[in-house]
Write a structure and sequence with these properties.
With 240 residues, the chain is an all-alpha fold. The chain folds into 2 domains: 49 residues, Arc Repressor Mutant, subunit A, CATH 1.10.10.60; 155 residues, Tetracycline Repressor, domain 2. The chain contains 9 helices and no strands. The protein is elongated. The relative contact order is 0.10. About 8% of the residues have low confidence.
Length: 240
């Protein structure tokens, strides 16, 4: 009877392999170094994986599923927002802008958390997978993210929430390029950054470029500001 696989051993192998892949790249990482790192035998490795490529393929699949889930969740939230009520009603544009900002803040933070969780794997995909089947994996994810941004901008443009004069493709490349640099930064970081601060900064940068300018508040809602005198006071005539 075949010996049942130990799930703890598999997890230990994956953890050890991720460290070896990051340190040496996929091609130069060796199975014997992976097993030595977690105190297991090569037999234990082959009980769970056919090869180091099979192990890495499983890890990359988890990253892809995680990314797909985030992309789908954001897409559903956007669809729900734009279908709630007519944006043509007077006074609701600010409500929608606030709701849109809340969605982006939540989902941007989740995306940053994902980039941090998988920073070692993304680093291997970017710098240690040349000449392997995984060489283009990270670019496929980036293309998907760019397409997501363009689709959502197109939807928001139809209802007047984003500017029509800014090409969606350019915005998509800008946002994806930003996250690519964030992933690179994370791969070299030793401490987790302040995600909330990063999200606020990213939102401010993006909104300043693509958001539709809000109309001024009604006059009754503005603070009363005293008018400045338009003429200089009369000078007193000198008396001799």
């Amino acid at each position: 009877m075949a010996r049942p696989a130990d799930p703890n051993a598999k997890s230990a192998l994956v953890t050890a392999a991720r460290a070896q892949f990051r340190a040496h790249g996929l091609q130069r990482a060796r199975i014997e170094d992976i097993t030595a790192r977690c105190g297991l035998s090569k037999g234990a490795f082959y009980l769970h994986f056919e090869s180091k490529e099979a192990l890495f393929r499983e890890v990359v699949a988890k990253v892809t599923v995680h990314h797909d889930t985030l992309r789908e969740d954001r897409d559903q939230a956007y669809l729900q927002l734009v279908s709630q009520r007519s944006l043509k009603k007077s006074g609701v544009i600010r409500d929608y802008m606030a709701a849109l900002a809340a969605i982006d803040a939540r989902e941007d933070r989740r995306l940053l958390e994902m980039l941090w969780e998988w920073r070692d794997v993304l680093d291997v995909l970017l710098h240690g997978s040349q000449g392997t089947e995984f060489e283009g994996a990270v670019w496929a994810m980036l293309d998907q993210e760019s397409e997501r941004v363009m689709l959502q901008l197109a939807r928001l443009e139809k209802v007047g929430l984003v500017r029509a004069d800014v090409p969606a493709e350019l915005v998509g490349m800008m946002i994806v390029g930003t996250y690519l640099l964030v992933a690179r930064r994370f791969s070299r970081a030793t401490e987790q950054p302040d995600f909330d601060h990063w999200v606020r900064s990213l939102q401010a940068l993006i909104a300043s470029g693509v958001a539709t300018p809000l109309a001024p508040l009604p006059s009754k809602a503005r603070r009363a500001v005293p008018r400045r005198a338009t003429t200089s006071p009369r000078r007193k005539k000198k008396t001799s």
